[in-house]
Fold this sequence. Notes:
This protein is an alpha+beta fold. Among the domains are: about 125-250, Sandwich (Jelly Rolls); about 250-325, 3-Layer(bab) Sandwich (Phage tail protein beta-alpha-beta fold). Helices cover about 30% and strands about 30% of the residues. It has helices spanning about 10-15, 20-35, 35-50, 55-70, 90-100, 245, 260-270, 280-285, 300-310, and strands at about 115-120, 125, 135, 140-145, 155-165, 175, 180-185, 190-195, 200-205, 210-215, 220, 225-230, 235-240, 255-260, 275, 285-295, 310-315, 320-325. Strands 1, 2, 3, 4, 5, 6, 7, 8, 9, 10, 11, 12 and 13 form a 13-stranded mixed sheet that branches. A hairpin with a 2-residue loop joins strand 17 (about 310-315) and strand 18. The radius of gyration is 22 Å and the shape is elongated. Keywords: Membrane, Transmembrane, Transmembrane helix. It comes from Sunxiuqinia dokdonensis. GO terms for molecular function: sigma factor antagonist activity.
Amino acid sequence: MMNDTNIPEQLIARYLNGDCSMEDEELLFRWVKAKAENEKRFLHIKDVWDASWQTSHRDTEQLLKFYQRQAVQKRSRTWPTWLPGAAAAAVLFIGFLLGSLLQPELGNSQAQVESYYVPQGSKSELVLADGTKVKLNADSRLEISADFSAKNRVVTLAGEGYFEVQSDASHPFTVQTDKFDVLVTGTKFNVSSYAEDQRISTTLSEGKIKLTTIKKQVVELNPGEKVSFDQQTMQAKLTKTDVNSDLAWVNGEFIFKDIPFPDLVKRLERWYDVKLIYQSKELEAITYSGKFKNQETIWQVLDALKLTSPIGYKKTNFREFELIYQPM
Length: 328
């Protein structure tokens, strides 16, 4: 019988690693529920585990391979600032290591497209040659042509990015995506264009933008407006929007208002670099409203969903959870 004052660290470790038997899991949960300090200690250990996974030897090697792949694709104008919380130390260490191992490519690199990719669980920001500031969300790629300059301002985006464009009416700035192009002269706006999302969109914070779709539709936006498209039909929906909610990710927050459950799952997967699995059709019909901060771990987010929605969860593998429909 487990003493209530003892911390079953090996049992907790097996549970977090997905190696816990049903009997051990029941024993662990009895210990957690026995005292408030037991539950607090358990949640603390979960948070430390969740935050520290990226600094393991195995994942450090994976991050090193990622930077090696990126180094042969680009000559960085500005080294991206990575913002994934606990992963920052590991990433900065790897960046420092590569700085002594890898040199920028010469010769043909002048004609290459510069490609900036942000993996899941991270964010990045950079400043382009014309002074435009760009913030990239998780699982996003920005490509910049080799001849990009203050007079030739064209970039390609896959994923989500927030742009603060330096004003120049004589030389418009263009963001190209698979389904639409955004043309501006000087403004602040957000583009969300993930290939796997049902809807893609652009939100305007300041200035004015002109958007042209692959179907030759033209939409002009004023501050506080958002245009979204169903990727299958490319039917446009222009609305007034809460700009602070749409741009919350820039400041490390997610603010959801009646978001469909499948879209919520995709966003959480990108933000936390996890896999969320579900099979229940009832979950697909749910819409969710809520607010999360970047400091919260995936465990805390799932616990919040469990308390406020008919959603339960269990850990099934490393960085993998199953979401379960549980009527409230």
